[in-house]
Amino acid sequence: MMYKGLWKLITKYADNGHAVSIFLPVLIVLWTLAGIAAGLIVCSVTGADMMTALADLICAGGYAGLILGLFGGCFYLYRLGV
Predict the structure, then answer these.
(1) Domain range list for the chain
(2) Exposed/middle/buried for 28, CB within 10 Å: 0-12, 13-18, 19+?
(3) 10 close to 20: Cβ distance less than 8 angstroms
(4) Against a cut of 0.70, is the pTM above it?
(5) Which residues, other chains included, contact 30 with Cβ-Cβ below 8 Å and sequence gap of 6+?
(6) 3 state DSSP class of 12
(7) pLDDT tens digits for 4-59?
(8) In whole angstroms, how large is the CA radius of gyration of the chain?
(9) From CA 27, how far away is CA 11, in angstroms rounded?
């Protein structure tokens, strides 16, 4: 659902060739921020020290961006036939 909505929004303003160049980086950034935010929420709920967990949070956010953003976006575009 999120991929479809973002794709429709981007293709509204750009053609398919340029939309791919916008779509994938935006997905990576959004999933990275979502992963970091989820980690911050977990740290605040568990009472963990944010400064000691900062490297782990950024690493987890990076993996979320890479796996869910890049690979998920590529699979979505592959299904679309772009």
Answers:
(1) 20-80
(2) buried
(3) no
(4) yes
(5) 69
(6) helix
(7) 999 999 999 999 889 999 999 999 999 999 999 999 999 889 888 888 888 888 99
(8) 15
(9) 14
